[in-house]
Amino acid sequence: MTGGVKILRRLARSAGIGIFTLGLVYLLLLIPETYPEVPQQSERRPFAWNQDELWSQLEEQFDQARRDDGATLGPRADSLLAGFRALLDIAAGRALAPEDTLWATVERAFFSPAPVIAVRSERLPEYAACYTQLRIAVKSQSQHWDMSAVAARARLYRLLYGSRAAVEEVMLQATADIVPALIDGSAEPSATPAASFLGVTVHSGDILVSRGGAPTSALIARGNDFPGNFSHVALVYVDDQTHEISIIESHIEQGVAIATPEEYLADRKLRVLVLRLRADVPQLATDPLVPHTAARLALDEARSRHIPYDFAMDFADDRQLFCSEVASAPYRKLGITLWMGLSHISSPGLRAWLAGFGVRHFVTQEPSDLEYDPQLCVVAEWHDPRLLAQDHLDNAVIDVMLETADMHPQLPYAMTMLPVARLSKAYSSILNLCGKIGPVPEGMSAAAALRNVAFSAKHAAIKSRTKQLADEFKQRRGYAPPYWVIVQLARRAQSDTE
């Protein structure tokens, strides 16, 4: 009996030592990381529309058009569209500086038909064609602009992003069968191998700029001085013998990878923009196959080594690559510098948030900004009409969250989960050494992973409440809330969920 008691005492002591050791390890793993240091604030300021009065007027005109005699709307649409085309012809026929006031007149003329077209949605294809014509004219003019100048960038943004926003507001009021999934762009010639993708003839060296469906995708799209529509970049390679398409891209979870078209689309895409190098770029005059060579360089590099994802967003260092670098790095080796106008992230709060995810460079190459490079033409624009409302909802929630970023510059996370996250990170590192993907991405810290979880949860809560408020608005008013109203609803939703 005495021997049994001794054994029990030894077991108890061992258990006590084990619990103490586990507790000590847990406490050590609870030691927080120092929040990443944010580089000195930029002197630049984010773009602001400051057009609330105009947005209200357009909504009032739309609401009135819904009540007007339908027979009068057709001639009104004819007149407004004709007026826009006439102005665009004048602008396209001159060499205009970005500061020229005619551009502001063209911009207003493009917005003007939107309320009528939103009611007469059968005219949507015609309005989308005007959008394409405007984009071609502005992109052509921008070849002679200084893309490092804020005025040039602001003008391009107002006309390209603004016209897309107007078309999409019309789309959101139209019935689903009228909304086109594909909007044609420039029929830019190319000498490189070609194949069909999403109903478009793509060429080797074309660049796909897309938007994913995750909250962090919305943050990437909106998180710079010119909030945009895209969060991801990929490079197309078309085999000159088989004409099979390979898509080279970089993912947060695994770094650089090669995907088939099916695999590329399986990773949810809300929209895709097809960009192509202009045929008159000097390097192509010497060698028309330069884009194919760039794509081949990227493909060979992806096959030859594991390339980690570059969380720092340092486009000058090719050892690690974030998605934009997959396109810019091989072209740079061939003497072509993409992103003629670099992206600037100036907001102090946003810089601090991105630093919490591992970003260290705030003058960089953001996916949305590649659209504005004058060297590139937009060949086509595809989107999923069913998901357009989600895209706008995600954007509005992010925009509202960013409004308060300066007041709360450090992204929070669940401190009690830090030990678990650190163990997951250690496990992930072992898997990475074996060429596998772990629960915490390579290059991302445990704290950054927890910040991502907390950020996504907060976004989801605000989005859910905003969606509820948007549905109530539609039931009450009889039409889907336009973007500027969704932003107002998101502000209320943020307040409701705090």
What does this molecule look like?
This protein has 498 residues and is α+β, with helices and mostly antiparallel strands. It has four domains: 30 residues; 129 residues, no CATH class; 200 residues, Alpha-Beta Complex (endopeptidase fold (from Nostoc punctiforme)); 99 residues, no CATH class. 52% of the residues lie in helices and 11% in strands. The strands form three sheets. A seven-stranded antiparallel beta sheet has the order 1-11-8-4-5-6-7. A hairpin with a 6-residue loop joins strand 5 and strand 6. The chain starts with a helix and ends with a helix.
Task: Give the tags.
11 strands; 498 residues; two-stranded antiparallel ribbon; endopeptidase fold (from Nostoc punctiforme); 17 helices; 52% helix
Strand order, sheet with most strands = 1-11-8-4-5-6-7
Major sheet? 7 strands, antiparallel
Structural class: alpha+beta
Per DSSP E runs of 2 or more residues, the count of β-strands stands at 11
Percent range for helical residues? 40-55%
Provide the CATH topology of the largest domain.
Answer: endopeptidase fold (from Nostoc punctiforme)
Task: Kindly report the name of the CATH homologous superfamily of the largest domain.
Answer: endopeptidase domain like (from Nostoc punctiforme)
What is the C-alpha radius of gyration, as a whole number of Å?
Answer: 26 Å
General form: globular
Give the strand content. Answer: 5-15%
